[in-house]
Every structure is written in C-alpha cells, then in structure tokens.
C-alpha cells in the first residue's frame, strides 16, 4: 500500500522542522514547502527570509525530505496585507496571523500542496484535530487546543473550515515545547537553538511605527482625557492600540496623583476616528478600559453553523485565559456578555469561542461596551 503523501510548511523554525521529522517517523511520504510571503524589502536588515530558507533546506537535508520554495507574495499582499492596511486606516487593530492562516497557509498553500499530489498538509502549529466518530456530529472535524496550553495556537486557527481541517495534521498538538527542543537537539538539527520568531511576518523585528509610516497616510490630532482636557497630540490614530501604555508620549504628565504621591500610568482607551481624537486614561483598571459586552462580525464557525449553547468560553486576545460568557448570534454577527469585565477589548482583534478544549470559531470584534 502506497504511503500517504503529506506536504508540510517548513518555515526554517524548530517547530515545523521537528514536525517534518515526526511525520516521517510515522510513515508518511513527506515533502517540505517553504513559503515566501513577502518581498517588498527582501534585502533589508529586518527580513529573515533568506536565512529562513537556508535553515529550512538544511533541516530537510538532515531529516531526509525533499523541499521546494513557493512564492505567495502576490496572494499575501492581496488577501492579507491589503486588509491589514484597511483595518488600520479605519482605526482598528487587526491580527494578520488569523487572516494569513485562513487565506495563505490553509488556502493558497493547500491548493498548491494538492497540485503536488498531497493527501494531507501539515504545519508546526500547536493545536489538534479530531474527527467525531459517534452521535449527531459524527464525521465532523473538530479543532482542539494543544496539550501544551502555554503554546496553544487554536486562537489563530479559528477561521478554518471543515474541508481545510479534514486535510490537516498538527504533529505538535500532543507535545510540549520543551520536548520539541529536546528532539531538535537529539537530531542535531542546524536550527535546534534558533529562537522563535516574534512579530508579524512582513514586519519582522523592525520598529512598527516606522513600517506603518511607509504605507499609511496619517494626521496628527488631539489627545484628550475622558473629561475633554487636551493633554497632548497624537501622531496618527493608526499608530495606537487600545490598552497601549508605552510610546504614548505623555509619560511626564501627572494629572492624577494617588494618596501616597505616586501617579498612575497612562493608557490608550478610545479612538474617535470621525474627530481624529485619541482618548487616554490613567490607571490600568479605569472603567473606560473594561468591557462587559462586545459585538463581533465576519463570523466563521468551524462546524459550519453557529454554536447553539449560550454559555461558552471566549478569548478576546491571544494568550488570554478563557473567560465565561453568554453569546447570542444574529444575522450581522454575534454578541458576548462577560461575567467579569474584560480589559482593553480591541476592535479588529478576534473574539474566539470555546467549549472546553474545542475551538468553535469566532469573529472580528467591531464594538465593545465599556462599563462606564
């Protein structure tokens, strides 16, 4: 019987490298695919694509798999980056990793893998896939959190559908990150000690404001407190996100002092796009930073239909602990009501719903109701 062919996305990082080895150990015919998603400034000090390709090819050699590079830069610019810029221009803070997974890694990549004769695809994400074998949902494919809760990436994968998940393997879903590093060292992989990449793939480690400056028009405007007092000038609403503390530019201003003479830090609390005004508050737990409800649009449900249970758990940002909520779905999206007010709920970010370890899907936050 012929081996099943798996095409795995190999980024040059340790996670996808160990994933490729695990798949080969499990008896699959493995082909590596290195995706190039950005080429505007390939030669800049911040772009690691060239080194990543060298690392991926070196690992493929050690593991004993074929690898090819494919350029998805045009698709990425079209489907991910253009939306990223649109969201920032509208005053929201998007999460391009969510869009990249849905549009590139599990769409353009999947299509290309199928053209290579793949039966399945795989990535180095920390998540799990499970097929329901009995009951009314028999045959349905579920997305589950990873065993390593500290590395779980199901939040970024919540827009995947049944067809995509049915063809996907996540070899690291049952493994702790410490074990992945150990395997890489034992195999003497050339990237065994390579640090995990951080930040958005097309920005890399570059200063974020400097990058946005190249693509967005911006207009300075007033920075106000909730009572309307002007306390400074912002450099453009796109450069700020709700809950931001550093880089606001009014650190020396102390309008409110505590009883002991100290003063609370400033935080970005609201953006008024119509009037080009940024509102800032003092204190981490200021009422303007706490939301009891939110509304999300652009719904995407893994099962294909919205969940019927009203009492569920949600994340409104990555690495946040699950919080219980009640959800209600309508024609234009869904609303969540939290039992405990949530901090800095940010339009443009994803609200993702869970039932235990099962990721149900979610949507893009468009509004939230502060408790004051």
UniProtKB/TrEMBL annotation:
**Which residues are responsible for catalysis?**
100 (nucleophile), 201 (cysteine persulfide intermediate)
- Site Interaction with tRNA: give positions: 125, 349
Would the keyword Transferase turn up in this protein's UniProt record?
yes
Q: What is its main location?
A: cytoplasm
EC primary class:
transferase
Residue numbers spanned by region Interaction with target base in tRNA: 95-97
Q: Which UniProt keywords apply?
A: ATP-binding, Cytoplasm, Disulfide bond, Nucleotide-binding, RNA-binding, Transferase, tRNA processing, tRNA-binding
Q: Which GO terms describe its molecular function?
A: ATP binding; tRNA binding; tRNA-uridine 2-sulfurtransferase activity
Limits of the tRNA-specific 2-thiouridylase MnmA-like central domain: 210-282
Which segments carry the region annotation Interaction with tRNA?
151-153, 317-318
Q: Which residues form the tRNA-specific 2-thiouridylase MnmA-like C-terminal domain?
A: 292-365
Q: Where in the cell is it found?
A: Cytoplasm
Residues annotated as binding ATP: 9-16, 35, 124
EC number of the protein: 2.8.1.13
Q: Which domain of life is it from?
A: Bacteria
The keyword Kinase is annotated on this UniProt entry = no
Q: Which HAMAP family match?
A: tRNA_thiouridyl_MnmA (MF_00144)
The job of this chain, per UniProt, is described as: Catalyzes the 2-thiolation of uridine at the wobble position (U34) of tRNA, leading to the formation of s(2)U34.
Know the name of this protein? tRNA-specific 2-thiouridylase MnmA
**Biological source species:** Oxalicibacterium faecigallinarum
Gene behind the chain:
mnmA
